[in-house]
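Retro notes
What went well: the complex prediction finally ran end to end.
Inputs used:
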Amino acid sequence: MPSASDPTVTPATTGPDPAPTSPEATTTAPKPPTAAAEPAAARPGPATAAGPHPAATGRPESGAAPDGGTTTPATTRVLARGRVGWIVRAVALVALAAAVLSFPSLAPNPYILSAGVVVLNYAVLSTSWNFVGGFTGYISLGHGALAGLGGYGTALLVTKAGLPSFVALAVAALLVAVLAVPIGYAALRVRGASFVIVSIALVLILLLVFQSWASLTGGSRGLVVPRPFPGLLRPEHHRVFYFLFAGLLGLALLAWWLIDRSRFGLGLKAIREDEDKAEALGTPTFAYKLVVFVVSAGFTALAGGLYALWFGDLDPVFQFSILTGSYLVLMALLGGVRHLFGPLVGALVVGIALEYFKVEFGNTPLHLVATGVLLALVVLFMPDGVLPAIGALANRLFGTTQSSIREVTAAQLREERTAGARVDAVAVPGGAQPTKERP
Amino acid sequence: MPSGALLFQSVILGLLLGGLYALLAAGLTLYFGIMRVVMIAHSAFLILAAYLAWWSHTRLGVDPLLSMVVTVPLFFGAGVLLQRLLLARLRAATLTMMSVLLTFAIAVTIEGLLGYAFTGTQRRIQLGYGSASFGLFGARIAVVKLIAFGLAAVALLTLYLLMKKTTFGWALRATIQHRDAARLVGIETEKVAGYGFGIGLATAAVGGTALALDTTIYPSLHWHWIGPLMAIIVVGGLGSVPGAAMAAMVLGMAQSLLQIPLGTTWAQTIFYLALFATLAFRPQGFFGGRLAQRF
C-alpha cells in the first residue's frame, strides 16, 4: 500500500472499524441500488415467461402441445403483454444500469465504495457460476478455486513474467479456461454427485498446492500484486475498479443472455431438466456441458484476476476457500438461477449482508452459522429463488394471463400432476410421461 | 531407500489409518446408497463427536471412550431426524444437488457453532496411556492408534453383521437396491431410510471418538477429512460398502507410504490424484460400483 494515499482517506479505508456511524451507513447507503435493482430485475420474471421465447417451443421435454390449442384472444393478449413487458424491461434495464453506474458518486466514503466493489465482484462471480449452475443444473462448490486460480495466475504473470497487468489478466483467464477442460472432462463424465465431489476436491487440492509451494506462490505469507495504476489515490483506485467490475458484469450478463436465447442454451436447459431425454434427442450433452463449464471458468477467472489487481494481496486460505464457492451458490440460488439477474440480486443481498456481518461481529465464526442457516433455508423453502417468487406475486397482482410456455421444472410439473387429479393429465396431452421415476 | 523398519512402520500406520477411513467411508456410502445423498456434513459430525469426547474428558474427567455411550445414540437420533425432517423434504428430481447444498450448510453451521463454543484453539486429549507404545518387529505402534483401529474394526464388523444377519439389515439393503420393490414387499422404506441415516451418523460418532484419541482437533478440521473421504467413495464406486473399505485401505496405505519421500502435506494429494484418475478412466469406480454408473 503506497503511503501517499493514506492521508487522504484516513478515517475510512482502514476497514473493519470505521467511525461509529459507518455500520449503519453500510446498511443504508447501498440501499438505493438494491431498491432499484429489485423491481428492475423482477420485471423480466413474468416477461421472459410470457414473451420472446420463440425457440422455447422446441424444448424437447416441455409439452408444446397445449400451445397449439390456445385460442386467439389469449395469444394476442400474450403478445401485447410481451410488448409491454419488453418496454418495461428496457426501462428497468436502463434504471438498473444508471443505479449501478451512479453508485460511486453517491457513495459517502471510500469504504462504502470498496464494499460496492466487493459486492460487484461477487455479482460477477455468481453470474459466472450461473453459466453452469443455472443452465445445466450442475452445482459447483469449487468456483471459488477457479477465481483464486485467476487471481494467482494474474499475480504470477505480473510479478514473475513481467507482463502488463491487464495482459496478464487476459492470459490468466485464458489459461484457467484451458485448465478447465481436463477438470470438466473428469467432472462432467458422470452425473451430479461426482461433479460436486470433484468441485470440492478442486478447492482442497489447490489450497494444498498453493500453501505448500511457497517458493512460487509465497505460501501462507501471501503474494503481493503490484497495482496497475500506481499513481492513483485510494478512492480513485476503488472508483476505477468499480467501473471495471461493472463492465465485466455487463459482459457476463450479456454472454448469459445470448446463451439463454440460443440453441446452445436450449440444449443446456434440456440437460438440466432431463439429461437422458436430452441425450436421446440428439443433444451432444457432454460437449455442451464442457463448453459451458469452460466459459464459466473463464469468466470466473477474469473476476478473480481483477480482484487480485484491485485488492493487491492474495492469501491461499481466502483464495481457495470452499466458503467463497458456497457464497456464490447461495447468491445465485437466493436470486434465482433461472434468471439473468438472479445472481446479481443474490449478490446484492448476500454481499451486503456479509459486509454488514464483518463490520458488526468482526471475525467470529458466527458468519459461518449465518451462512449455513441461510443456505439451508433457501435450499429447503426457496430453491427457485426470490425472483420467481416476486414474479409470481406480480402475476397475481397485475394479470391473470397464464403464459403459453411455462418456465417450470420437470419436478414441479411432476408434483403438480401427482397432486392434481388425473383429469388434468388428460387435458395436457404433451407430458403425462415424466412421472417415471429415476432409476 | 528408506530402511525396512521405517517401511514396516508406515505399512502398520497405513493399515491403522485405513481402518478409520474405511469406517467413515462406510457411513458415507450408506447415505449414498439409501438416498443418493453426498453427505458433506459427515466429517463435520465426526469433528463434533471428537469435540464431545474431548469435552467430556476435560470437563467431566471421563475417559473419551465412555463418551460414546452418549454420542452414538445421540448421533443415531440426529441422523434419523436429519433424514426425516430435512432431506426427505427436498424435491426428488434435484435431490442429489440440493442435498449436497443442504448438508454443506449443516457442515458450515456445525463448524461455526464449534468455533463459537470452543473457540478456534487447537485441542488435544491428554491421556494417561496417550504416549504408551509397544514395539513390533522394529516398528513402534502407539496404543491409542491401536485402540482407534480396534474401535473402527469393531464398528465395521457390527455394521456388517447388522446388514447381513438381521431382518432390519435385509430391509435396509432391499431399500438400497430397489426402493419401490422394497415397498411392494411391505418394507416401510421411509422408516428404514431414516434408521439407515442414523446408523451412518453413528459411525461418525465412533470415528470421531477414535479420532479424538490421538489427533489435535480444531473446528475447521473437517475439511481435511471430507476430501479424502469423498475421494475414497468415488474410487470405491459410489454406493458400494466393500468397495469403499477396499479403497480406504489402499489409499490410507498409499498415503502413509508416500509420506516417507514426500512429507505429510504432499502425500495427501494421492487422494485427489486417485479421484481424478478414477473419474477420467473408470467413472464407475474400481471396486464394486454397480450404482455409480447411473450417477
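What we learned: DSSP finds 21 helices and two strands in chain A.
What to try next: split runs per interface for comparison.
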